[in-house]
Amino acid sequence: MSKKRVLTGVTTTGIPHLGNYVGAIRPAVRAAQNPDTESFLFLADYHGIIKCHEPEMIHQSTQAVAATWLACGLDPERTTFYRQSDISEVMELNWILTCITAKGLMNRAHAYKAAVQANVENNQEDPDHGVEMGLYSYPILMTADILMFNANEVPVGRDQIQHVEMARDIAGRFNHRFKEVFTLPEVKIDENVELLVGLDGRKMSKSYGNTIPLWENDKKTQKSVNKIITNMKEPGEPKQPDESPLFEIYKAFSTSSETAAFTQMLAEGLAWGEAKKLLAAKINTELAEPRERYNALTANPSQIEDILQAGAAKARKEARELLDKVRDTVGIRPLK
Description:
Structural class: mainly alpha
Mean pLDDT: 93
Number of strands: 5
Distance between the termini: 39 Å
Order of helices and strands: EHEHHEHHHHEHEHHHHH
Radius of gyration: 23 Å
Shape: globular
Strand order of the largest sheet: 1-2-3
Strand content: 5-15%
Number of helices: 13
């Protein structure tokens, strides 16, 4: 039986935080260990420059994201791990797909529609004011990323479902117009993925400024945890799990029995300060070894580069074969 092919991209526009670890990195690394799965993971640096126009941030983020995945247990022998910009075939496929994609489909993309709506609400004379072609056409680049390796499943958040559906539409259009070349990808939504809450109880996000950094030392992690909002209940007063985001973060790093014990301690009057010490200890225990690996990798970026180049070589071999087939299919072939 052939293995199921799963593909995931990670945009290189920031430094990973605890929410990224719990919600995406940890479950993806575990899923990649499934012997029935063929896993592809790439650093989406061309996607990064759509919104981020700070070259140093793109560069630093690429290193940090790569080191994070490797430090958290990604096995580059089991997973094809590569940087998007190292696979030139993706960009060529992007153009070929652009030539058969209906403009009306791109007009319906959520990000583009949101930008137009914002312009209308702000009384801009031009509804496309400030809209660049990267924003407008990036669903086609995402389609090229997916179809380049004929992925069967693409794990995404609910806000990305439309893009995988567009990839199916574009693949189907190509297959119908020319011949059957592309696999139609399926969306994979993991209902059990944890959306970690932040310091203020909202989803942990850089845009809210409520994150806990992933790679700081034990003392700094404790300082971040100390900022989690709590109520004014004194030590000795019974406390409920829903009275502070602290409980949900603790739960993400604990077994069910540990969570039950923590709930009991809160009910018996555990002080918030002591609860925060227990949480920081939990986080630091789980991340102690990955932090060592992360620091070693970032101190030796050429090691990261070697791993990415080895992954790119594996990816390019497949990409070249498929692109040659696509080129021949559309009539771009040697003269004989």
